[in-house]
């Protein structure tokens, strides 16, 4: 009887944990949210792309800034969702960059700039902004030209998860634009 009760209790606990979101990310010393799936690298995009490929993952960059209410929303409402969190863990090599940071970044084209100047070079104006990259980037190409998709701003779980899947499925190589893919995913 104890074994049956233990099994029932274990199953109930597993069901509760399966629907409970993860805790929101902690704030780092730089004021940005930190998650377990963010990678701490030297921010040389060529090296990071090679490491992502070696791990069988897609390279993504998320630009954020201290005090960003939309970044907070993503880290409290979207990223902690178990389905989103698991998908990112399994499929992405994610770099976090600070829109106003001073950490040096080496672009795919070899140019080295602080994060804030790289954000300007790339024409980024909103946080959060996620950039997604192909497995191969031709020599001399900068990140904005190499990106297969850019997601500027905060979106709810459905749109975010659809974008993550569309990139992994290489939807950008098909005739179905993301907007139609999203509509199809949300109607299922």
UniProtKB/TrEMBL annotation:
Domain Thioredoxin-like fold stretches: 53-136
Keywords linked to the UniProt accession: Signal
Stored Pfam families: Thioredoxin_2 (PF13098)
InterPro entries: SoxW, Thioredoxin-like_fold, Thioredoxin-like_sf
Range of residues in the leader sequence: 1-25
Claim: Ion transport is one of the keywords in the record: no
Domain of life: Bacteria
Gene3D superfamilies reported for this sequence: Glutaredoxin
Name of the protein in question: SoxW family protein
């Amino acid at each position: 009887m104890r074994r049956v009760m233990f099994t029932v209790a274990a199953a109930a606990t597993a069901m509760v944990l399966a629907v409970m979101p993860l805790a929101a990310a902690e704030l780092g010393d730089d004021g940005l949210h930190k998650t377990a799936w963010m990678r701490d690298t030297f921010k040389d995009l060529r090296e990071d792309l090679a490491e992502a490929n070696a791990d069988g993952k897609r390279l993504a960059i998320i630009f954020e800034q201290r005090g960003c209410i939309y970044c907070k929303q993503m880290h409290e409402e979207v990223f902690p969702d178990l389905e989103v969190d698991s998908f990112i863990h399994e499929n992405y090599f994610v770099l976090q960059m600070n829109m106003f940071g001073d950490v040096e970044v080496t672009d795919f084209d070899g140019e080295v700039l602080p994060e804030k100047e790289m954000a300007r070079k790339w024409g980024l104006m909103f946080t959060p902004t996620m950039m997604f990259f192909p497995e191969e980037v031709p020599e001399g190409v900068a990140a904005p030209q190499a990106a297969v998709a850019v997601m500027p701003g905060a979106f709810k779980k459905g749109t975010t998860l659809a974008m993550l899947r569309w990139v992994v499925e290489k939807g950008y190589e098909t005739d179905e634009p993301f907007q139609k893919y999203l509509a199809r995913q949300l109607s299922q």
